[in-house]
Design brief:
Mean pLDDT: 86
Structural class: mainly alpha
Number of helices: 5
Number of strands: 0
């Protein structure tokens, strides 16, 4: 979901031809990163399968990067 949001945040300013819109994309990504980690932290103790998934999947926000 977050990866799709990042693609949307990059694509919309490009589609609209707003280069200024691309300047705020890093700020939005920086704001989404703690939120994504914060959402999965309380779930891990409740679900052993999710904790196993977290240990296998290293990239949570941007595949291959972070």
């Amino acid at each position: 979901m977050y990866t799709a949001a990042i693609l949307y945040l990059i694509g919309m300013p490009l589609l609209l031809g707003s280069w200024y819109g691309l300047l705020v994309v890093p700020l939005f990504i920086a704001g989404m990163a703690p939120r994504a980690v914060g959402e999965e932290t309380p779930v891990a103790p409740q679900s052993p399968r999710y904790a196993d998934y977290m240990s296998r999947v290293r990239y949570r926000l941007i595949p291959g990067v972070w």
